[in-house]
Specification:
The chain is mainly alpha-helical and about 375 residues long. It has one domain (about 5-360): Amino acid/polyamine transporter I (Up-down Bundle). It contains 14 helices and two strands; from the N terminus they run βααααααααβαααααα. It has a two-stranded parallel sheet with strand order 1-2.
Length: about 375
């Protein structure tokens, strides 16, 4: 662990990525990938992982020169202050919207699975209070807490994967032919939607102590994400088959409800729900910290704690008015957010990199 000069290590930053990706991976990927690729859906993470690895190599080039600068500073230096500020405003609004969306999704799923009689406003408010309390002290306490979470979550995921094996049927993962190539490619897009959250880490890139470790650690992160994504798809797909999986709102949770240990210990989904809550917390916390750091850097503020409460209240009300139901949230995700996230997380940074190459800002 390296926290020199108020910074976190690359390893801690990548662990933040892994944990915050895990919540949308478990609730989102099995359904969306199986819809597109059917029994071949478990191949989608490999395609998305290859793209993610190539994309992160682009950031390796960025960081050879900009390892001590945030995304805002990098953008301003490459495209100019006026266009850079416009882009940063757009990113701030996107982060704010995505924070509210993920917060609402968290509340809706928790109400529908374990707390049907609890007002969703209380669930959302409780999450924001905890998030605000943790991130007011900065990124270092959040990163240290996340390392502990990561070890616990790894144990939970490994344990559940092992006990699910007797229920898994490999025949539900086959046959696979050349005709599945295009559906597998389409199925990789929902995964890339989640991987687009990479950009959150680079919003506070100036708080990361790189020390030449970026490429090596990032490749490890990509491998771990491919494994987690593949397991999240294989387990429900092999237990239920593709036609049944696409009819379930939460295939991974439903798969865990089918599992028992020696027919003695049943209803093991409590561990997965704990996994889910923790990863949602990290996702929302990183988003909020990224937004606050953008404000700090943009306005050169030494302290944004007074603004944090205002921002959290804004997120609270935005999450409540975002949609009237889970169906509207799902429609919003499929028709708008999937495409928009890829634009914000991959396409715009790639364009900025191309401009940097043309202007010889990076080599």
């Amino acid at each position: 662990m390296n926290n020199d000069n108020g910074k976190i290590s690359v390893r801690q930053a990548m662990i933040l990525c892994i944990v915050m990706y895990s919540a949308p991976i478990l609730r989102y990927l099995p359904l969306m990938t199986v819809k597109e690729a059917k029994q071949a859906a478990w191949l989608c993470p490999l395609i998305a992982g290859i793209f993610e690895a190539l994309y992160m190599l682009v950031w390796c080039e960025f960081l050879k020169k900009y390892d001590k600068k945030s995304f805002i500073e990098i953008t301003n230096d490459i495209v100019g202050k006026i266009l850079g500020n416009i882009l940063c405003i757009i990113y701030f609004l996107w982060i704010t919207f995505m924070t509210a969306y993920n917060l609402r999704i968290y509340g809706e799923r928790l109400v529908s699975t374990t707390m049907p009689h609890v007002d969703i406003m209380l669930i959302i408010l409780a999450m924001l209070i905890v998030v605000g309390y943790v991130i007011k002290s900065g990124i270092i306490p959040l990163a240290r807490m996340n390392e502990l979470f990561f070890m616990g979550l790894a144990i939970i995921l490994i344990f559940y994967s092992i006990i699910a094996m007797p229920e898994m049927r490999l025949k539900n993962l086959f046959p696979i032919t050349y005709k599945d190539a295009f559906p597998v490619l389409l199925g990789s897009f929902p995964i890339l939607t989640i991987f687009s959250y990479n950009i959150m880490i680079f919003m506070f890139n100036d708080k990361i102590n790189h020390k030449g470790e970026f490429k090596r650690v990032v490749m490890k992160k990509v491998i771990i994400l491919i494994i987690i994504s593949t397991l999240s798809i294989i387990i429900p797909l092999s237990i239920f088959s593709a036609p049944i999986t696409i009819k379930m709102p939460l295939p991974f949770i439903h798969a865990m409800m089918q599992v028992s240990v020696f027919d003695i210990i049943e209803r093991l989904e409590a561990g997965i729900i704990t996994f889910w809550i923790i990863t949602d917390f990290m996702l929302i916390a990183v988003f909020v910290y990224s937004a606050m750091h953008m404000i700090r850097v943009s306005f050169k503020l030494s302290n944004v704690k007074p603004l944090l409460i205002i921002y959290l209240l804004g997120i609270f009300f935005l999450s409540l008015i975002l949609a009237k139901s889970s169906l509207e949230l799902e429609t919003l995700s499929i028709n708008i957010l999937t495409q928009f996230n890829i634009i914000m997380g991959f396409i715009i940074p790639t364009i900025i990199f191309a401009i940097a190459k043309i202007r010889k800002k990076v080599w």
